[in-house]
Structures are given as structure tokens and as C-alpha cells.
Amino acid sequence: SYELTQPPSVSVSPGQTARITCSGDTLPKKYAYWYQQKSGQAPVVVIYEDNKRPSGIPERFSGSSSGTMATLTISGAHVEDEGDYYCYSTDISGNYGKFGGGTKLTVL
Amino acid sequence: EVQLVESGGGLVQPGGSLKLSCAASGFTLSGSAVHWVRQASGKGLEWIGRIRIKSNNYATSYIESVKGRFTISRDDSKNMAFLQMNSLKTEDTAVYYCRAGFDPWGQGTLVTVSS
Lengths: 108, 115
Description:
- The structure holds two protein chains of two kinds.
- By secondary structure, chain A is mainly β.
- Helices cover 0% and strands 44% of the residues of chain A.
- In chain B, strand 5 and strand 6 (60-62) form a beta hairpin.
């Protein structure tokens, strides 16, 4: 079955750059999406189609994808960026979605 | 305001059924595939299925663990989508979210399967 692999946790100090990776075999051909989820809230998209940032998402959030790895970068992380981050993509047919296991970002 | 609102969650016994609704406001749902995603307490997000738009023949896909038990449908005239869940198991206990395309998401509705 198709899998997306993320590190369970990433920790940075405020102002540092946080990078969260997502590895998957179909990422060379399928877009990656990144969702932020804070405790008790619904997920919010922070990056779509590998590197596009929705309106209202701070410029410190950026995305990239190369080969089988997509990366979410938070340049100059803020304490309020803490939460769980999930990558999302589809299988090669595009018929089945998949989330990575999630990465808990700690900023302190 | 663009918004999705789920409803219909609750407590149900194993083997029972429940139908969740997803109502869109502020945009036309008919232009988006609708996905259902669940999250068990303390766990990650799990994509469970989706229904495409009319021009894609409302094609549906489901993960293996819910195939044959769950059915996704939509009523574009009402700007709504639905998740019919039958033969529920304790492991189906989760918060269920609907999502239009890649965004927006609803706030989620809790489904608890327990005797």
C-alpha cells in the first residue's frame, strides 16, 4: 500500500528555521499538500500543490518537492506555529488519498 | 464566509448505522470533490474516501477497511454531501471531517461506537 513518511517530531527555538519532510514514492508525480492542526481544531492547509501558499498563511511558510521528498519549511518559526503538521498526497492513480503520520512541531 | 459544517455524529452500538451530513455555505460544493477524513482520539488523520463531481460521474473511492460498509453521496442541489456508515465497529470511533477539494474543512463531528 502507498505510504507517506514523516518524522514524528521536530523541535526548534523561536526564530529558527523548521523543516518537516515527507517521503513517498509517488511524490515525483503527485502534488503534496501540508496541513497544520492545532489541538482540538480542524486542519488548515498551509501549502498546496507542493509550493503554493493560500492567502492568509504567513510568508514564513514555504513548500518544495524534489524526487520522492516534499519539504515544509517555516523560516523564523513563531511559538504560535506549534502544532501537528500532516502531508497529504494521492496514490499514482489519483483515486486514493493518504496522509503522512504527522509531525509534532515544538517551538520553544 | 466559506464554510463546511458536519452534523449527524453521536453514540451508536456496534453493528449500527449513522449518516453524517456535510453542508457547504459561501461557495458551490458542486465544483469540488468531497473527501471524508477521520481522526481517532490522539491519532493522526486518516483519509477514508471521496466522491468526485458530476462531470467525473460522481465516482467514489474508499479505503479497504470501510469498503462495503461506508457510502459517500452528494446532493448538489442542496450543496451537501453525506457519509452513510453501516455495520459500525468500535474501531470506527473518531472525529469525522468533510473536506472540499484540498480545503476548506468542516469542524468535525464525533462518532462513538460503543455498547
